[in-house]
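Quick one:
INPUT:
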């Protein structure tokens, strides 16, 4: 049996106020991303349409989770929040977003988790490309996947396909020190010294993500334009990414390791690294691992004078 302490009806009522069409709080599951993908790729369009523009699949007992590069992510029941937000821009206000801007949803989720955890009292920031760091260790990972929905028929009567995004977040909440999967991981319980309410974390996260997503839509998907009263997405990324200013080592898929200083994030979300005098842009797909050049897990900007 599962150990989910979240109430389906309460979460649904809270999420519905922020525009979520489907809310599934699972007692336990293998992977919330896999559950969401199964619905999103159902050949019956009426099944997919139930998801609306925003939906969520969540649990605190995920048994076969996976992160970037298909790394396993498994936690003791009741100790972590796994949540996957399904974003279907074509089904609502985001229909004007260009698919090439969908990758910014990873950052939107990272900033949303950061805001929620900071309000709990956790001093955390982003590690490029998709982690949150607190106390020098990882407390959350974000994984976004682009999904091509099955072909349907548009109003003109011709075949049409729609691209949607699964944005998953795995947050270490009520894990004891001895339950942490690696020595480079931490949890809100370890950092704060007490447990937190998983359901409240989820409902707050959904509220913040919806607000930030709508701000991005109101900016037309332009990461350099403010939207919804928020600073631009790119400005927030630069301000809250610990990696910038740090001396890093990038492990590439072909086995090469490039060291240099991470100087900036460009308007495509790539990290700009200066190595041997040259400034080069690297996307998420270009890099297998990004670590500190001294071999430690975390590369952070040096203290400001």
């Amino acid at each position: 049996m599962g150990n989910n302490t979240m109430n389906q009806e309460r979460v649904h009522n809270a999420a519905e106020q922020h525009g979520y069409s489907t809310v599934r709080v699972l007692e336990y599951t293998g992977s919330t991303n896999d559950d969401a993908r199964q619905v999103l790729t159902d050949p019956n369009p009426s099944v997919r349409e139930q998801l609306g523009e925003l939906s969520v699949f969540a649990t605190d007992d995920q048994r076969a989770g996976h992160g970037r590069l298909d790394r396993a992510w498994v936690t003791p029941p009741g100790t972590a929040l796994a949540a996957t937000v399904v974003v279907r821009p074509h089904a609502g206000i985001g229909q004007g977003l260009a698919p090439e801007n969908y990758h910014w949803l990873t950052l939107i989720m990272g900033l949303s988790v950061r805001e929620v955890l900071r309000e709990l009292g956790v001093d955390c920031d982003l590690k490029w490309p998709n982690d949150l760091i607190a106390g020098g260790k990882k407390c959350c990972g974000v994984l976004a996947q682009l999904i091509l929905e099955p072909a349907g028929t548009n109003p003109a009567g011709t075949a049409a396909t729609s691209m949607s995004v699964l944005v998953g977040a795995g947050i270490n909440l009520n894990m004891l020190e001895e339950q942490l999967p690696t020595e480079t991981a931490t949890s809100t319980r370890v950092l704060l010294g007490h447990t937190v309410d998983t359901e409240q974390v989820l409902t707050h996260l959904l509220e913040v993500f919806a607000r930030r997503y709508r701000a991005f839509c109101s900016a037309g998907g332009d990461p350099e334009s403010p939207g919804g009263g928020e600073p631009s997405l790119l400005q927030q990324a630069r301000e809250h990414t610990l990696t910038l200013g740090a001396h890093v080592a990038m492990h590439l898929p072909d086995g090469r390791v490039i060291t240099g200083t991470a100087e900036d994030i460009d308007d495509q979300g790539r990290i700009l690294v200066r190595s041997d005098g040259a400034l080069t842009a690297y996307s998420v797909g270009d890099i297998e691992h990004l670590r500190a050049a001294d071999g430690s897990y975390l590369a952070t900007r040096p203290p400001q004078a």
